[in-house]
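Class prep. Protein, please:
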Amino acid sequence: MNENEKYEEEQKKLHTLCAENHFSYTLGFDEYPATLIIRPDETAVAQLSFAPAGEREETGADAFLKLSIIDGEVTYKFSDTFIISDELLNKVKRLFSKMYLFWCQYLFREIMQHHLLGSAAMTALIGEAVAGDKPEGDAPKDYI
């Protein structure tokens, strides 16, 4: 299974989770940072609550949860009226993290396989990344 298939599998899980809990969602992988915005769907059932039955409170129609991945860390922001259980929030965070990982892997593979980053830019990036990693002394020539 390649990265794209793994991404799609996680997206299906997110779609199912959101449908079961009366959410709609928007993914934003087209700019940095990557984002996932979850809102209540527009059904009357969704207006009741996203919390378990014993903890029901009102969730506003304008409520949202915005997750972002910055420097590998998932951060999130709630609107004042968004209600979600810790368990459900953790599931959403895990799915979003996996999707981001698979998306990054897929993007990297596409860039490398199709030589989408010019050789000068690639040399500059690699040079910056390993500048302090060069061994001293008699290093193999293919390493340097």
